[in-house]
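Below is how a single chain appears once it has passed through the pipeline. First comes the sequence as given, then the structure the pipeline wrote out for it. We keep one example in the README because the format questions we get most often are answered faster by looking than by reading.
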Amino acid sequence: MKRFMMVVALLILATAVHAQEYSTARAQMQHKYNTRFLSEHLKQTEESLLKAMQDSSLGIQTSAIQTIRELEELFTAYPFALLLSPLESKLRDENADAVVRRLSALALDGLHSEAGDAVIRDVAKSTEDKGLQALCNALLVKGGLYK
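Resulting structure:
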């Protein structure tokens, strides 16, 4: 139950941040974003998502990775550096759940990092999972990185 509540809290946070991000121009002018507060809040959220990714429940893991993907779209300037290595580990782990691996590939692609692109390229060449291999190759083509 505690895990479920954590995921619900993270999804509520993402929804609230999403609603704030798309407020009207007038409201944006009246209420400038406190970038320091937002940065600290994202840092705390990133730490919570890291813990959720390490949970034994596949549902918690997939929800956390999907939340990462949604936050990447909302906050393109935030690096989410703390999550890079765990996402790489999930993607490389041949014994990990197939959905977790695919979501990890999509999240790594969303980070737009050279390290993440290199992992996607390596997995495309080495994985035995043909579906994941096709996804990684498609991500490389989409990013103009296919070689």
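The chain has eight helices and no strands.

See the next section for the split statistics.
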